[in-house]
Amino acid sequence: MADPQFGVADYIVLAAIMIVSSLIGLFYRFTGGQQKTSSEYLLADGNMSVLPVAFSLMASFMSAITLLGVTQENYSYGTQFVCINLAYVLSTPVAAYIFLPVFYNLKSPSVYKYLEDRFGKIARITASLAFSVQMFLYMGIVLYAPSLALSAVTGLSFEGSVIGVGLVCTFYSTVGGMKAVLMTDLFQSLLMFSAVLTVIFSTCLKHSVLEVWETAVDRDRIQFLEISPDPTVRHTVWTQVFGGCFVYCSLYAVNQAQVQRLMTLPTLAQAQAALWIQVPILMCLSLLTSFAGLCIFFTYKDCDPFLEGRIQKSDQLFPIFILDQLAQIPGLAGLAVGGIFSGSLSTVSSAINSLAAVTLEDYIKPCCTVPENRSTLVLKGLALGYGLACIGLAFLADLLGTGVLQASLTIFGVVGGPLLGLFALGMLTRISGQAGAVTGLLTGLIFVSWIGFGGPKPPVPKLSLSISNCSNPDSDLMWNSSTWSSTATLNPTWRPTNSNSTELNPETEYFYLYRISYAWYSMIGFLITVGVGLLVSVLYSKISGFEPELVEDNLLSHLTNRSSNKSYRVHEAFGDTEKPEKIQECKL
After folding, report:
1. Distances in Å between the alpha carbon of 166 and those of 23, 31, 337?
2. Which domain holds residue 526?
3. What is d(CA 476, CA 39) in angstroms, rounded to the nearest whole number?
4. Average pLDDT over residues 76-104
């Protein structure tokens, strides 16, 4: 019997999704202010409504990484990752009430303008460069992931998929600005939900939810209470809840792409509401995607497609399920793949828009004057350039040795944690100066990059899989709980293993820091940046005899302002030739 194939109806659905996304960009190009000012292009003139922004906040974070990565995570390693949803709830008040009011009151398209006001130009340019590198790497992975999905199920070449996805999001981001990005995010969020729900419904219409759950329990996939204090254990309650809080804050509290979205709302209260509304949306998609991973595992519980040789990477589990289970219904497979496709579009378009904003505000304007009537043209050129560069970078993502989920979170941890620490130094301390802030940031970036990208790292053992019911009885593959190898005879025995086990990787074989869970990288970067920043600031002040200047109230979090009736500005001449004038007298 021939394998199911992508049909004409599926291609029509995919084409419709691309066309609708492009038309949204064209609509906002020729309506309203027609993207003639930088305020409209970058901040939608501050006139957006809460719901589209809330969906956009979710979509730019979750993206195709969620659909491909989380399903594979639950399939291969169990459900311990789900505990990260608790971090979303715990961290939202920090983002909404400690960091967001400071950014919102400054009304700058770039969050890094705050760093110049608080510390100086060197702090601003260093942080914006770190963000640019982070988003470049992330865009590559996010564009790579759905292209992998498309090539797996449609027969399109990987190269063609990357180019097609990249050109669509580049087009509507360039011509439609922030309004188009936000509204396409809303449209694409609904498609992401539809992709996940098709997996769940197609499984649960044939088998009960209880069957799926019981199979997951029997095969050791249900894991919520791993409480080992060992930081080298990949996923525990501690890594997901506490480590997840730092990842979430680095994304929603100080990330340019997310803060820029929140600035499109008319009031601070509406921006805070959008942050809260996106939490249940975020959790809903996360939990549904996790259960979809269990549904996929239920389908392949006795014939893993990777071991059978049908797919080359575990990240292709979602696409192969679509091909096997949904292709019989015309258009349904196209809708599911379109959901994965849409996840990439939403995130890449966000990155393109935010990178254009940072480049204009942080790199170009400090060097030369850009007339307002020319700024939009410059922004469109930048957006186009970043979109085309993203297409090239996507081809490098295939060189990463880990799955797309861990790779993306590693990138955010390595850069996001130190950046969160830098903004915390500015908003939550008075004694921090530019020397300490920049030194802390660079130290954090270097250290976490070392442990994050250094190696060799121990392989991550997967939970056991079975090939006892594969259609090919002559298969010569055998699963040994951490890899597969050729053998003379088929051994279909299912043997449970612990996904967090280090038995196959003796501690003496790998450097300790390389064995630390990637989920701690963001917290480590934060702590090093803050610790070194405070230490260097104190030492610099004592050695140089530098006296702090006044800190403007709007540069400090309300927590810092309330803790004392004095407010200082530490802005020493660490490479800067000018110091800002004092705004007000010290409060006594």
Report:
1. 16, 25, 16
2. 8-397+405-463+498-569
3. 62
4. 95
pLDDT at 564: 46
d(CA 254, CA 249): 7
Identity of the residue numbered 546: F
From residue 139, give the alpha-carbon distance in Å to each of 309, 387, 389. 29, 9, 10
pLDDT tens figures, 191-246:
999 999 999 999 999 999 999 999 999 999 999 989 999 999 999 999 999 999 99
pLDDT at 495 over 50: no
Q: What is the CATH number of the domain that holds 200?
A: 1.20.1730.10
* Alpha carbon 237 to its chain's center: 20
User: What's the structural domain count of the chain?
Assistant: 1
End-to-end Cα spacing for the chain = 84
- Contact between residue 278 and residue 51 where contact means Cβ atoms under 8 Å apart: no
CA distance 477 to 394: 32
Q: 156 pLDDT band (50/70/90 cuts)?
A: low
In a domain, 1, yes or no: no
Within a domain: 38: yes
Instruction: Tell me how far apart the alpha carbons of residues 22 and 18 are, in angstroms, rounded to a whole number.
Output: 6
Q: Is residue 575 part of a domain?
A: no
Structure tokens at 535: 């230490």
Please, what is the average pLDDT of the chain? 83
Q: For residue 78, what are the contacts with CB-CB under 8 A and spacing of at least 6?
A: 220, 221, 222, 223, 463, 499
Alpha-carbon span 75 to 73, nearest angstrom: 5
**Hunting for tokens 């935010």 — which residue is that?**
354
Q: How many residues does the chain have?
A: 588
Question: Tens digit of pLDDT for each residue in 306-358?
Answer: 888 888 777 788 888 988 888 888 889 889 888 888 888 888 888 899 999 99
In the chain, the percentage of residues whose pLDDT exceeds 70 is: 83
Report if residue 479 sits inside a domain. no
